[in-house]
Amino acid sequence: MRPEDFGKMTMQQARKTQDEEIIREQIALAIGSESAAHLDLRHTVDKGYGLYAATDIKRGACIFKEAPLVLITQEASDSLETVFYVSRQVSKLCQNQQRAYRMLHKATESINPAISRNMQDKFAGITSRADVNDAIQRKIEDFATFKTNAFQVRLNEGIGTAVFLAHSRLNHSCSPNGHQAYNEREGLEMLHATCDIIAGEEITVTYTNLLRTSSQRAAELQRWGFACNCKSCKGAGASASDIRRKRMFDIDQAIAFDNCTNTTLKALSRPRYTLPTLIAGKLTWVEELAKLCGEEGLAVCQLFAYRECSERYLELGKLDKAFAFAAKGLRLHRVCYGNDDIPIDDAAMWISELQSHSDEQKKEPALASAQILYQEILKEEEAAYQEGKKAWAADKKVNKKAKRAIKAAVEKAGLTTEDAEGLLAGIKTEKLAIVSEKLKGEDDTEKVKSIIAELRS
């Protein structure tokens, strides 16, 4: 090796070492030294820089959390306004932050060529073409870095797009061991381990739809300018994985179609397969999806399947099964999102909703018993009423007979009908028979009056 070549290689190695130190330093500042101590920055030929576990990491652990380095409050579009906005945001960073940002992978080929032409037109007439070209190239590269490494984040005002120093160093895998989610409450991007990660293992996330075959995923990953070589794409079980994921995709589409309430949309986008008509048949499919997600190790996809299983079992009236799948979903939510995020609230609310159904169901036996008792009381009251009605009819008959006898006795004693009615007006109905009996054969007016007056009191 010539001395000049050796010197050049030494300088390149020194520059690489310096770059790595800057990246490590900026990542530690972004996520905190305690979290950074569990990570190791490594460079590989096929992937570039990536983050590896420096210690064993347990499933569900929050590996790190990070605030955005560059944030725009909209989706990243290929427009001059977005290019200039990103450029201004990058220019506000300190020198080492800018260096760390610009060392992120950039897929410049994904940028619309019209942007460069439009920028050339915008700067037309400026004397120093070299300076203009350098400025344009820098802005385009900064935007390419942003577009290649950006994540969508949930903001109060809608959807935003952000680049992070640590999160953007995470490489892709179609069988990821980490899950990223933006915690709107904290304003931080969170990374949780979806399975146990051993020291020395690379920490990976996904960039694409995992319910696709390896060839479909490869086509989608071209926008980042790399091919995935994970076990699901190139491993010994890749073909079996493809079969499972194809089936998972079909079930997922069938569920989405079944849940869709827009008849026009359903008419335009009928999937290859649809769920069975009966709820028991639908359950077979959604439980199959949950099982396949588990076999593929796709935790976030399994969350969706668990919720579907829970909802379908509720439809079927099997609350015990609905609770079982809801509980699995809540546990998996905590693994993927931690204990304080909006998805956790949603899962907890679903548990509460199931609890209310359970409370109602618990009330139902008591309510049924109460209704039976009420019906029995009604029957008893009806029977008593009928008995009373019969007794009243009998009494009425007796009283009518008694009144006739009393009237005859009163008239026999020389009293008028009006006098008789006046005398009888104060006598209780139940005493009429007694009056009738005592007046039998009596024709003395005063005696009749005396008997009636006695029984009236």
Please, could you describe this protein's structure?
The protein has 3 domains: 3-224, SET domain (Beta-clip-like), CATH 2.170.270; 237-363, Alpha Horseshoe (Serine Threonine Protein Phosphatase 5, Tetratricopeptide repeat), CATH 1.25.40; 379-456, Helicase, Ruva Protein, domain 3 (Orthogonal Bundle). The chain is elongated. It has 457 residues and is mainly alpha-helical. The chain has a 3-stranded antiparallel β-sheet. A 3-stranded antiparallel β-sheet has the order 4-6-5. It contains 17 helices and 10 strands. This is SET domain-containing protein. InterPro entries: SET_dom, SET_dom_sf, SET_domain_protein. Residues 37-208 form the SET domain.
